[in-house]
Amino acid sequence: MAAPGFDFDLLQGPMLVASERPRTTWIWLLGLPVLLVAGTVALVLYLQTFEAEEADRRRMADAQWLEQSTRFHFRRLETDLSVLAHLYLANAGNSTQPDSTGLLLRSPGVILAQGWLSSDQRATLNNWPHNLARWHVDTRNADNARALETLQRITLGLRRASYAGPMLDDKGAASDVVWLAVPVFERGVFAGDYMVALSINAAITSLVPNWFKTNHSIRMLIPSGTPLNNPPASQPHFWAQLNLPGVEMALDVRSLAPQIANVPRLFFLVALVFLAGMFASLVALRRDLIKRHRIEAQLRAQVALRRAMENAVTIGLRAWDLNGRILYVNQAFCQLVGFSATELLGRSAPLPYWPAEQTDELNTVHRDVIAQGTQDAGVEVQFQHRSGRLVDVLIHEAPLFDTHNAQLGWMSSVIDISERKHNQAMAAKQQERLEASGRLVAMGEVASTLAHELNQPLGALSGFANGLLNRIRNGRISIDEIAPVVERMDALSDKAGRIIQRVNAFARRLEMSRQRLDLNQFLQDTLATTRAGSDIKVSMQLGTPRVWIEADPLLLEQAVSNVARNAMDWAQRGEFSPQIRVQLHIGSQNESPHVGIVIGDNGPGVPDSELATIFNAFHTNKPEGMGMGLAICRSVIEAHHGHITVARDPTLGGAQFTLWLPLDNHPHN
Length: 669
Known about the structure:
Blueprint: H1 9-18, H2 23-90, H3 103-106, E1 111-118, H4 119-123, H5 133-138, H6 142-157, E2 162-164, E3 177-186, E4 189-199, H7 200-207, H8 210-215, E5 216-221, E6 237-241, E7 250-255, H9 262-312, E8 316-321, E9 326-329, H10 331-337, H11 341-344, H12 359-372, E10 379-384, E11 390-401, E12 407-416, H13 418-474, H14 479-507, E13 515-518, H15 519-530, E14 537-541, E15 548-551, H16 553-571, E16 579-589, E17 592-601, H17 629-639, E18 643-648, E19 655-662
Parallel strand pairs: 14-16
Antiparallel strand pairs: 1-4, 2-3, 3-4, 5-7, 6-7, 8-9, 8-12, 10-11, 11-12, 13-15, 16-17, 17-19, 18-19
């Protein structure tokens, strides 16, 4: 079953309208996402601009590096050639290449032809060394001849190394061959030139490292702008000037793969992560604001509902801290004691609504409640109203916790039970009257039943008296025979007198003469008397040697005898040989130990239709019966705080009556 609830939306509706969020909150919530988007766009644009600038800077740096690297290597080549020329002159025409030379001089394919050309040999072309034969091949073209002639004039006139080229082939197409001449002067007199034919492509290939070639493609440009090799696909490129004196050549360098600036992109990624986090935070903040607003509205609704409940409830509510100081009282509690909330808040023991004569007792109760609260049953005390009248109250305490689950004190519910107490007192008096009336009714039932029971001893007395009188008149009896008859008559009369006395005491609401009885021995004596003169089979299962109860022996004997005689009578009306069984059964009735006196027979049993009325007065199935025997048995057993039940005997098949009586658990001395 679902727990009862309350529709707080009914109370939250007007509160939501009355407490809308400030407009500035919405402006911030809408403005911050716009700022986030603008910041993201600005970062993207900045990254693109930065990458473009970074690419230009890298291209410029690569161009400068390439120009400086080529300039360095060609200057080193000029120095190496000057060294070779001096070695040639010093060794009279036998020159060996030094151990330490530059990269271009060592790299294969760079030097196509080299040799020493003295000043005398320059004048006569036919006397040039055979290793400079390429010179004659290149001078076949007029343009090449003019360039080489200019080369010789520069080295002679300007006294510095000079280049000529690029050389044109037989078809007039530019090649990558360039001539280098390094002049040598001895004591100011021109001695000659060391001549070298170079392959620029081979030189560039040898001096450019592999890491540069991996990311760049390099091609040679002649002064007319025509490349010496096929250009690659269109990529960002830059030009690097070779800066060779006498030769106007440049290198077109293109990036094969875009060089990505990882740091800016990493920064951009981190910025995006932070922006995404800010956006998620804004979403979470918006949800939190909505949730907080709803919770605040619900709390206001709950407070309103709680106040309405406090004003409507008739139970007094009181809260106090662990020091016994009152923290809160509701209107019902104030009406209960007659003091206002202002007069009670902050007060501690002794409290103004305590009766003066019960101050010490209430102070003890107060300390116990502050220390450990109350049990489930609560605690009953008396308060004194301001007017002076006493008020019986029932107090229940529950722990009062703060938001950190730490106990602040106790919350009390105080119920006015004055009317209940009054009603209980009235009910007790009424119950006493009802018990008196019940005893009178029971007395009537007992009197009627015992009158029926007294028929036997009185009839026996009458029979004994008449027989004795007749035999005395006829002179057929001696003095010795008279004594047993008189003793038997005296015993019957004494028993009848004692029965009448117990009935009289029971009717006058006197206490029964309870005695501690051994139930085993009591049943043996009672059944022996009951079955005297009868041949009905009686089986007894009494169990443990001693079972102790407290009972009035005479009344209990009458009840047990009545049930036993009833069983013997109905057993004779069955189809089989009559028999009854008697046993004791130890069990629990209403959570207390009881003993059951089970008396069963093999008669026809009690019909199901009569189970509810068999113990009623004047109910009988015997033509000669009065219908009071079982009613009186029930009254006697109930007077002993027990009860009687009837069922079908599982062994014999007839009726089974069980007389339940409380056990006496006190030790027997």
